[in-house]
Amino acid sequence: MSKNKKNNFNNESLGLSRCEWCLSDPLYIKYHDEEWGKEVTDDCTMFEFLVLESAQAGLSWITILKRREGYRNAFANFDPEKVAKMTEDDVERLVQDEKIIRHRGKIESTITNARHFLEIQKEFTSFCDYLKTFLPEGKPIINHWKTLEEIPASTLVSNDISKDMKKRGFKFFGPVICYAFLEAVGYVNDHVEGCPFKYRD
After folding, report:
1. Which of 7, 11, 110, 183 lies at a 20 to 30 A Cα distance from 65?
2. What is the pLDDT of residues 74-127, one digit of tens each?
3. Which of the four pLDDT bands, split at 50, 70 and 90, describes residue 201?
4. Is residue 70 assigned to a domain?
5. Residues of the chain with pLDDT > 90: what percent?
6. pLDDT digit string (tens) for 22-41?
């Protein structure tokens, strides 16, 4: 999530007090309202966000959101088993795909990350269970920030997870990207106080 305060919308006109970062684009609002901070409980969705957040490195999140369907089509509907079997021929094809970020390193890392993702599943039963080993009592962290400025770019938890994943061979998943990932999958709830989407099923 790129915490950009600039926006073209007004919370008052929308009748809600959403987190300010999402107000720059209708796609951001939809993502904020329906997905961001909502706990993910299945590994397929976990892998989807792992792919997307890794692709975000050095870019804005809206850039990736606008290419989400392109990534879905490029990477086998985010099926880690199928992605793990991709070859150099697939890489050559994907670097020509204008519907995704045509960065060879990121494309190659998506494939290798899929293989490491499967290794974690075998070791911990699920990637969700693996992540929970880093969380206090294995439960999502709910923060109580009042302003956007209070939200950190990374934390000790994201540092620890990123460090461990790096040891396992993951790439494009540093502490900052890891923290954005944790926010996205709801393992860290960083909706500001007063946001009507902070607590919901």
Report:
1. 11
2. 999 999 999 999 999 999 999 999 999 999 999 999 999 999 999 999 999 999
3. low
4. yes
5. 90
6. 999 999 999 999 999 999 99
Domain hosting residue 96, numbered range:
11-189
The rounded mean pLDDT for the chain is 93
Query: What CATH number corresponds to the domain at position 59?
Result: 1.10.340.30
Domain membership flag for residue 5: no
Tokens encoding 201? 């099923």
Q: Is residue 128 part of a domain?
A: yes
Structure-block tokens of residue 109: 């890392």
Residues 6+ apart with CB under 8 A from 127: 43, 46, 47, 117, 120, 121
Residue 201 lies in a domain: no
Token reading at 38: 């909502």
Number of separate domains in the chain:
1
Residues belonging to the active site: 31, 53, 61
The backbone torsions φ and ψ at residue 25, rounded to the nearest 5 degrees and listed phi first, read -160, 140
